[in-house]
Amino acid sequence: MADLSYLDAPDWQAYRQRVLTAAANPPEKIPATDPRSSVPEALRPGRHRVHPSFFWYNALLVTVVLCVSMGVSLIGAITELLSDGGLPLPFALMIVLAVGLVVLLCAICFLSTYLSWRFMSYELTPEEISVHSGVISKKHFHIPYQRVQAVNQEMKLVQRLIGVCNVKIDNAGGSSNDAMRLNYLRITDAEALRAELYRRKKVLSDGGSIDQFGNAVVRGVVVPSAWMVANCNNDPDTALRVLGVDPAQNAALANSLTARPSGEASLAAGSAGPAGATAAGIASAVNATAAFGAAPFAVAKESDGTVKGNVLDIAEGMVHDVRGLFGGEEIQTGRVTYEARLSNKELLFSALSGSVEQMGLMFLGVLAALAGIGSFLGSSFEDYMDSMIAQGVGAVVDSAVSQGIGHVVLFGVGVSAVVILIMWVLSTIGVTLKYGGFVVRRREGRIEIEHGILKREFKGVGVDRVQGVVIKQSLVRKLLGYCELSVSKIESVDASGGNEGSAQPVSPTTVIHPFARMKDVPDLLAGLIPEYAASLEAPIRPAPVALRRAILRRSVLQSGNFWTLVCVVAVHLVLLWVAGLPGLDAEDQMILMYAFNVFPALYPIFGLVFLGNVVGSVLWYRNSSMGYDRNFLKVINGGFSTTTDLLPRRKIQFAQTKQNPFQRMAKVSRVQAITAGGFQKTKVELWDVAEQDAWEYMQWVLPRQ
């Protein structure tokens, strides 16, 4: 039995009281020689503010915008007054008044931004993280630790130079799943906050408790926090004694609780049961500043055995090492077991294919460019057509068709080609910078994704929050043998944070690899999310009648191309009827002539799209299927693009089959599986499955004994 009589000595009691007082009331600035200076501010007791760059950078940005806008307005006003005959006031006085107004507005901007920063703070209490904000109207937003799902961050270019980031804390809560935001937090504080939130969540989830200093107690075992250890001159045993615990007895109790019988599943394998929960709780109560990431981990490699990577990883590594002006030292947030990056080829192909898939936006850009050119040349073209009309209708037909239309078409094609080329190049560069420095890793119970050179984004997804795995192959990716790998999850609503009050739903899927080879997908799943690395066949095909129904549904009933063609034909017939009316003047005849020259060019386009819909329907029928085993459901929806969904049976909230009257006559059903998705539910379905297959699927979904 250890001798604990010293705990009652007056000198020890006085020392203990000094330590507790100093720990409870930390100074705003701690000297660099003090051991407590090594503890990030986010891990210290009390309320903390975000970095001061929150107000001075934002205020400076608004000031520049105000000065530029006021300067432009002032120059325009003075120019207009001079053109009207003179200034109502002396020129120097007007300049002084304008400068005074700008200074006043800038002062108001600085003051309001400073007050917003001054009255915004966050705090870690024993049960929750809280954010306080508001000068006149006070706001208090809090999230209990057990409800923390992800701690994400993003950094714009200027923020990377400063060394700060925006942090978003997601919580679990269905459709009311709000996210807490902390903008302009030091990178070190953001990393430490992420580790501490996950630590406290684990401790409380395992039945432990946290005190005001962050000390954890799990089944009687006390683990002092980094802050308490620093207050005891970095001596963990002294910290335990200050907390009234004998180090030897505490270590013996921890060893007895974490002792595992031979043959029992290891803690790393995620064993369940009271003993496992106790071991997990004690293991998770370690300090948030401990070096978790030192152990070796598996990495994705090329076929020749070299580690994957690309040229932009070097640039990102240099920026990451610098960490900005105020970034601070890097904090490890858990043990990494697997990591994957993009190779040079994957980065290039992801950029090129991503650009091709944005052709819709490029087409809108072409239309905008042509509209601008048409507006610019409108008056000249109108004068040209008036001169043609003055020559007579016959001259209009011959000259306009042979010269005017030909020149306009050639000019439009040339402009369109140039615009598409420019937008494609810019889009390729943008996608390259977006995924530059990409890395995805498995860290303890979550998947982490980082990417971006100019704007760095960090996303984390807890494995327990994942609802399914989605493998998407666009036409380009399918031809190259690649796919986009993502996970569906319970998303949140970005609706808090003191300075940002918007409520925007977040996408229910998170891309964990933008451009992976199909043959590498099993290895990626085994490394990142082995819980979903199931090899599952999909033998259930749509019924034979599904081919005819798919062609009718995709090419006619649900086709915008078909119904647009119907409208175009109707307009064409109306114009033919109008052309037969007597009394039309030359200008009306010219307009009809242009219309009749346009329609023959449209019909082949509609025909090609219709043929594409038919081919897509055939491909869907040949490549779509579903299958399930005891634990997973796999649904494949093919076509020009293919989407494969892998859903755990226990994550399916409910399943259903649907039949419209035509499906009942064809004896087929549409099967659906719905998983939780927070703001939006995630639905996976397959059309026109035989009734017997649909009935067996519904029996599979039923709860088991």
Describe the model.
The structure is a single chain. The protein is an alpha+beta fold and 705 residues long. The chain has 20 helices and 26 strands. α5 runs antiparallel to α9, α11 (344-356) runs antiparallel to α13 and α17 packs antiparallel against α18 (586-623). The protein has a ten-stranded mixed beta sheet with strand order 11-12-13-14-15-5-6-7-18-19, with helices on both faces.
Strand composition percent: 15-25%
Percent range for helical residues?
40-55%
| Order of strands in the sheet with most strands | 11-12-13-14-15-5-6-7-18-19
Task: Write down the overall mean pLDDT.
Answer: 79
> Spans of 5+ residues with little confidence (pLDDT < 50)?
262-276, 393-398, 495-506
- How would you classify the helix and strand content by structural class? alpha+beta
Could you give a short account of the major beta sheet? 10 strands, mixed
State the shape: globular
- Gap from first CA to last CA: 51 Å
The gyration radius over C-alpha positions equals 33 Å
Number of helices: 20
The overall strand count is: 26
